[in-house]
Amino acid sequence: MIVVGFHLFETYSKGPASQILNHGYLAVDFFFVLSGFVIGYAYDDRWNRMSIKDFFKRRIVRLHPMVIMGTLLGALFFYFGDCSAFSLISQTPWWLMILIMLLGFTMIPTLPSLDIRGWSETNPLNGPTWSLMWEYLANILYAVFIRHFSKTLLIIFVAFAAFLTLNLTLNWDVFGVLSTRQYAAYTVIGGWNITPDQICIGITRLLYPFFMGLLLSRINKLIKIRAGFWWCSILIVILLVMPRIGGEHNMWMNGLYEALCILIMFPLIVSIGAGSNVTGKSAALCKFSGQISYPLYITHYPLIYMQIAWAKNHPNASTGEIVCLCISIFILSIAIAYACLKLYDLPIRDWLKKHWLMKQSTK
Predict the structure, then answer these.
(1) What is d(CA 303, CA 346) in angstroms, rounded to the nearest whole number?
(2) Residue 114: what pLDDT?
(3) C-alpha distances in angstroms, 111 versus 71, 93, 123?
(4) Do the beta carbons of residue 70 and residue 349 sit within 8 Å?
(5) Over the chain, what HEC string results?
(6) What mean pLDDT is predicted for residues 69-91?
(7) What pLDDT is recorded for position 359?
(8) How deeply is 293 buried, as exposed, middle or buried, from its count of CB atoms within 10 A (0-12, 13-18, 19+)?
(9) Contact criterion met (CB below 8 Å) for 195 and 112
(10) Do 24 and 331 form a contact (C-beta atoms < 8 A)?
(11) Which tens digits make up the pLDDT trace of 288-314?
(12) Mean pLDDT computed over 101-126
């Protein structure tokens, strides 16, 4: 929900330094830590009775139905986003949009030469899919290579990944590929298109969080505190809505803050969350939040595209109109995500488990 709010405010932001809910983009890095922990927790002890093929099939069943739905929604709303910010929409024939939609269904990234919006996203119909592309890569690395790592080797690998995180957040640029991102220097912003700098950013944002999460699940030294859910929630909110650190003149301070969040705070929060008991109303809230988080993340951005178009086409809109629109989109995003969860995602996954996973496992 913070991510949705971040994107709604971003439409009216003058840049990363002035963005409200300033560090909302770090939610992606937190998701990677959480995902790495869950993968290790759920699959590390199954490999004596599960093949790599079975693992990939299970991950496809869990993730891919909503990838298709998010891309489909982006296609349905695509032409409603025509505005000066999306210069290519008005030039895009319907057949090319359909082709990009089919490409998006497969998670194959769109090259800049096939961009149909003007932002060079890996999926021009649904931008946030970029993080799922990296999630898929992490699953492949885990299943093929890193699941075989001992704890010692995994610690060494995670330490190298931590160096890559510092290289990005502190703008060291030891590989000489980050010079073109001065607008986002001393941040982890990026990773959503296929250029050398963005590929470097995407890999960096993936490796430490995901495999640190995996390491946490293997070490299994979880932190147990009372009201752990509420403490985790408070910490996440504080870290993601924190204003820009250091301003325009001490940008390194912001890089240090983001490094602290990714390297220390996010793993700490996952350890607290995994180690704490949840009961009563907190359990119900956790269940609802856990179920809706992925559908909300992967379906809300087509509405943001339309919000951006409305803002560009109505530059003199009143504050009241803007607030009304943003609240409406926020509520509609949650409603669409919940409807997709109940009417599409859960039924499709149940059907696939019954007719694809279980059927194959009995042969």
Answers:
(1) 23
(2) 93
(3) 16, 18, 9
(4) no
(5) CHHHHHHHHHCCCCCHHHCCCCCHHHHHHHHHHHHHHHHHHHHCCCCCCCCHHHHHHHHHHHHHHHHHHHHHHHHHHHHHHCECCECCHHHCCHHHHHHHHHHHHCCCCCCHHHCCCCCCCCCCCCCCHHHHHHHHHHHHHHHHCHHHCCHHHHHHHHHHHHHHHHHHHCCCCCCCCCCCCHHHCCCCCCCCCCCHHHHHHHHHHHHHHHHHHHHHHHHCCCCCCCCHHHHHHHHHHHHHHCCCCCCCCCHHHHHHHHHHHHHHHHHHHHHHHHHCCCCHHHHHHHHHHHHHHHHHHHHCHHHHHHHHHHHHHCCCCCHHHHHHHHHHHHHHHHHHHHHHHHHHHHHHHHHHHHHHHHHHHCC
(6) 96
(7) 64
(8) middle
(9) yes
(10) no
(11) 999 999 999 999 999 999 999 999 999
(12) 95
Mean pLDDT score across all residues of the chain: 94
| CB 86 within 8 Å of CB 309 | yes
Return the structure tokens found at 155: 């610690």
Q: What is the mean pLDDT of residues 42-53?
A: 94
Cα separation of the two ends of the chain:
42
CA distance 98 to 119: 18
Q: What is the pLDDT of residue 228?
A: 87
> Is the confidence at residue 363, as pLDDT, over 70?
no
Q: According to the model, what pLDDT value does residue 91 have? A: 95
Query: Is residue 247 pLDDT above 90, yes or no?
Result: no
Asked if 217 and 202 touch (Cβ cutoff 8 Å), the reply is no
Rounded Cα–Cα distance for residues 117 and 77 (Å): 12
- Tokens for 10? 């971003």
